[in-house]
Amino acid sequence: MPLRAQLDEIDRRIINELQGGFPLVERPYAAVARELGISEADLIARLKRLLEIGAATRFGPMYHAERMGGAVMLAALAVPEARFEEVAALVNAYDEVAHNYKRAHKYNMWFVVAAETPERIEEVLQDIEARTGLSVLRAPKLKEYFIGFRVPV
Fold first, then answer.
1. What is the pLDDT of residue 69?
2. 144: Cβ–Cβ under 8 A, 6 or more apart, which residues?
3. Whole-prediction pTM
């Protein structure tokens, strides 16, 4: 069954509602549930289901590392297919690696490195290069964009 067919109106409203923020109150799930006209338990169960079926890939805060004194960089590797799983395991083993995505492109592995300093990011990337024998494409953030995702209700 297509993913869209698995989402009812309330699921779509949850996806839309939670992209704009999460209330900083004693019972945030209860507050959001009230806005949606459902129970707190139903909201939590629906969030778990949205994650399980892949309608949501993550649910949690988005931190601005730079505003907290840290640094972030998007990086990519052109990994031979036969080595993809090996290299992915190596890259993902770094505490500084936040996300790792496989893409159909010459650069088929894209990942985000977040660290306390730009120097630490460079240390991690140099270590990945030394351990894999592959050159890391560095794509520093020049400007930040927020692209809101809304689903029709």
1. 74
2. 64
3. 0.62
